Amino acid sequence: MSVTKEQFIRDFKDALHEEHLIKIPVATPTELFTSLAKVIRKYYTPKWLERNKRLSDDQEKIAFYFSIEFLPGRMLETNLLNLGILDLVKDSFSDLGIDFEAVKNAEHDMALGNGGLGRLAAAFMDSLATTGYPGFGNGIRYQYGLFKQKIVNGHQVELPDAWFGSVGNVWEVRKDHDIVDVKLYGNVHLEMNEHGKLIPIHENSQTLRAVPYDVPQLGYQNGIVNNLRLWDVEIPEEDELHYPTLEARRKVQDITAILYPDDSSYEGKELRLTQEYFMTSAGLQTIIKYYLKQGRPLAKIHEKVSVHINDTHPAVAPAEFMRLLIDEYGLEWQEAWETTVKTMSYTNHTILSEALEKWDEGLFKKVLPRVYQIILEIDNRYVVKMATDGVDPNIIEKTRIVKDGQIHMAHLAIIGGYSVNGVAKLHTKLLQEDTLSDFYAIYPEKFNNKTNGIVQRRWTQIAAPELSEQIDKVIGCDWRKDIHQLEELKHYVNDDTVLNDFYCVKQKAKERLATYIYETTGITVSTQAIFDVQVKRLHAYKRQLLNLMHIIKLYWDLKDNPDKDVVPRVFIFGAKAAPGYHFAKSVIKLINEVANLVNNDVDLKDKLKVVFLENYNVSLAELIIPAADVSEQISLASKEASGTSNMKFMMTGSVTLATLDGANIEIKDEVGDDNIVIFGMTKDDVYDHYRKHDYYSRGIYENQPVIKRVVDTFVDGTISDVVSEGMEIFESLITHNDEYFLLEDFMSYVEAQEKIDHLYRDKKVWSQMSLMNITKSHKFTSDDTISQYAEELWQIKK
Ligand code: 26Q
């Protein structure tokens, strides 16, 4: 959009007067923020209206991305950048004497997600708007997002994330006219009507009101505004008498009160099932209503609508869609089923079996009695059809939806849709060959890969403005619109001046992070040290513990020989543990206590520092990632579906230290073997151990003195205040046979770390590696990923 500085300043001052009746010098950052947001809303609202009108006038096909999580982080800068006025606003603020950073920090992160899956969903919203595809989000307006993490005495403590704060969500718009009702509980029986048709009668149910709040998704400087619709729950006025106590009302509000803070192990909780159904049903109901306004036949809805199921959390969608088509709109089963399968597609984000959702039949029947009946019918028909097609009865039994008293949501998503995709090449291959191999044998045509991507704009232009300016200087500004232009940087890998300039940019980012580290933890770190970073959810398979074991090895090396010639290192961690994940919390405590040990030992002469930054979130990622020299991506091969932070680090010139897992493999293919450091077992090595049952960690421990010394450190009193945690870790590694093969990979990891030390000493070589990573990072833009979804799956048009 075009606005002059003078006009913007006038608009801003007006907003400040209207909202807060004050002038700039006395306004707080929050007041300045809400006023700025008001101006931004004014700028994009006409475009938003226009987009909605155009789409319904033109009757274009729309994709709806159903996800129980969306993790956009802060929206202020993205909105300004995408409107094309970020620099203008920063400039104006500087003229007005306003600290832009302070205003930006007044916005709470919108943290309605746990990690990778939620961040990917938010990235897709941005990329859909940017590429111009009509794609809308559908999710939950949680009152509390992912908990705020405090570290107290080395332990994680969780506090509620009251992200609405005192000002609410400044970007959302409540849409009363799109309210729908969602029914739960009660009992259902079938009655024959006058035409001999069986009609379900749902009695004694509870009706909830689903209220949509729309959050605009601005495309990058293209005037397009899409919609992210988040549902809140309310009690229908006519039912208020049913909820006479505060407690009864609170039970309803609980449905959208909190985001489940777990991203790995699933628990069969009734409230979670309710959340999943609530947002799925509400979303599907509005979609059908919207479609019917076009005056087209319902049986052809797949021609105008695509529904994407992000992991199994919204996987009740095919069954709920069937219920709506049949019960509410009178379609026949066969017709309804055909259109349902053509409408639904599903992404799998994990191969960990403990994360695959299954619902107890009894619970499901109690909460969703009619949907339950429909699932039984889908299951029965599936079994009969497969048997008729001559499928092996064992395979039918393994793949059916309802078995052993449980409803298998992934099976419903696969059977009830036309597409199943993994999120990186290796992941998709593993789904086909292992986790979902029986389905792959039945429906090979449904399987496909869509390697994840990231919103490059957030990780360069917003998180790394100096880096972006440096890129401008070398190849011009076109890359900001067309990220593939980054490829041009490859012509400068031998240009010493350019290499040095990029090096200096990294140093600046490191200085900023060093300041933050000092201000928040009191730890002093040198920017001459290698900044070695591992930031992600804490999980055993991601192996933060392997990183910590290597730190302990370095500690002993330096204690034994304080003059040892090593490049100083700062190991930086950021990680939240699921509140009920005991092991993960113990690892956090250990990292913090090792940090205490190492940071305060003068013998080490500042060659080794360990920093745990609390409350890792999108905003902190924006500060940390551009400052990293080394990106730790060290999951056990086969376990990390894709990873996406690996791509963000690469884009800001970190060198990846990685196992051949998830998208690391594709990063390696892009940058070449010389520009990444790979170590450890391959997925085949891992699977060989599974097949042969021949892994014995105690053998390694007893035969490898370096490893023995490191492992013993957890229990020999070297690290203070970790008696129970140290023991727990020791037992996981030795007594429980080291489920994620840390000991087998340890020596190879140490070697890889030595290689990093060696490479970093040669400033030119390191700078070349770094630049090659930036150069090749364009491959991982979510703009391209989403274009593949749009064209290959959803068949929507720009
Ligand atoms: C399920 C049921 C009940 C409660 C919670 C959950 C739940 C919630 C979130 C299960 C899983 C998640 C999130 C999973 C996730 O973030 N997976 C990551 O997805 C990324 C995007 O595809 C990948 O890059 C990561 O490799 C993958 O771990």
TrEMBL record:
UniProt-listed CDD domains: GT35_Glycogen_Phosphorylase
GO biological process: glycogen catabolic process
PANTHER family from the UniProt entry: GLYCOGEN PHOSPHORYLASE, GLYCOGEN PHOSPHORYLASE, LIVER FORM
One Pfam entry name: Phosphorylase
Residue(s) carrying N6-(pyridoxal phosphate)lysine: K648
The entry's keywords: Allosteric enzyme, Carbohydrate metabolism, Glycosyltransferase, Pyridoxal phosphate, Transferase
Function of the protein: Phosphorylase is an important allosteric enzyme in carbohydrate metabolism. Enzymes from different sources differ in their regulatory mechanisms and in their natural substrates. However, all known phosphorylases share catalytic and structural properties.
InterPro entries linked: Glycg_phsphrylas (IPR011833), Glyco_trans_35 (IPR000811)
Family: Belongs to the glycogen phosphorylase family.
Presence of keyword Glycosyltransferase: yes
Cofactor annotation: pyridoxal 5'-phosphate
Domain of life: Bacteria
Source lineage: Bacteria, Bacillati, Bacillota, Bacilli, Lactobacillales
Reactions listed under catalytic activity: [(1->4)-alpha-D-glucosyl](n) + phosphate = [(1->4)-alpha-D-glucosyl](n-1) + alpha-D-glucose 1-phosphate
One Gene Ontology cellular component annotation held by this UniProt entry: cytoplasm
Coiled coil (residue ranges): none
One Gene Ontology MF term: pyridoxal phosphate binding
The EC number(s) this enzyme carries: 2.4.1.1
Protein name in the entry: Alpha-1,4 glucan phosphorylase
